[in-house]
Design a protein that fits this description.
Shape: globular
Order of helices and strands: EHEHEHEHEHEHHHHE
Helix content: 25-40%
Distance between the termini: 12 Å
Number of strands: 7
Number of helices: 9
């Protein structure tokens, strides 16, 4: 039985490596099915040390070239010297920058962080969630940000998330390096995707973020020190919550077939 092709997918995340950790499997899945995919990263400048690593990760996932908004990281001043931190940037300006990418790429689905900030509650994750939520709506309204191009309305917005029942090994690993774990109720999750066929691509994309792999506290470094079986258990499932727009009649939006 032939399945219809997967729809185009734009991932919007805060930092280089978020795309690989949180939606690398789904990005690889969509690319393998022939769908257009791309990633917008809210922080770090195009000439920063992490930009080449991001480009390498996206090449593994088939997600085209990096699209960086260029804001500073809330916790790392080297991310974009001379630029405002994402959490300090004018909201209207940040929304406009993201709207331009949405209208340029014209995705069917947008994926971003959840409202609690993705396990650790990083302020850049929370801010990116807020910006994405507003930009997805604004992108479809011609009177908003007319300079950002012709309007385009994505059919669905999903938040990548972690349900309480799905945290598993991550909880002791993150708590072991002094990080808080902010999972959501299981009822918050609307879609869970088994990305086992694409975990090899996902893992190689994570490894492309070499600077984070070499460090002790970031999740890529934690995963790199794990036995392969434990790591596979952690990265083989990706969880999402469909936020907006709501389901419509004959709407084929899905993250998995």
């Amino acid at each position: 039985m032939n399945h219809p092709p997967l729809p185009s997918l734009l991932a919007v995340f805060a930092h280089p490596d978020d795309e690989s950790l949180l939606a690398g499997g789904v990005l690889a899945q969509h690319h393998a099915a022939g769908a257009r995919t791309a990633v917008v990263t809210a922080t770090w400048a195009p000439d920063s040390r992490r930009a080449p690593e991001l480009a390498d990760a996206l090449a593994v996932l088939g997600a085209s070239s990096p699209r960086l908004l260029g804001y500073g990281d809330a916790r790392n001043p080297e991310a974009a010297p001379g630029q405002p931190r994402l959490v300090d940037a004018p909201l209207d300006e940040a929304i406009g920058r993201l709207v331009a990418h949405i209208r340029d790429f014209r995705p069917y689905i947008v994926v971003t962080h959840d409202a609690v900030g993705q396990l650790t509650g990083h302020p850049d994750h929370v801010r990116t969630h807020q910006i994405a939520l507003l930009a997805v709506e604004a992108a479809g309204l011609a009177r908003l940000y007319p300079e950002a191009g012709p309007p385009w309305q994505p059919a669905a917005l999903y938040a990548a998330t972690h349900p309480e029942s799905g945290v598993g090994l991550l909880r002791p690993l993150l708590e072991g390096v002094g990080k808080e774990v902010l999972a959501v109720p299981d009822s918050y999750v609307t879609t869970s995707v088994d990305v086992t066929p694409w975990t090899d691509a996902k893992w190689h994309a994570i490894l492309a973020h070499r600077g984070e792999v070499a460090r002790e506290r970031p999740l890529p470094g934690i995963l790199a020190r794990l036995p392969e079986a434990d790591r596979a258990q952690i990265i083989r499932t990706e969880h999402f919550t469909r936020l907006t727009p709501g389901p419509t009649k004959c709407d084929p939006a899905r993250l998995a077939t």
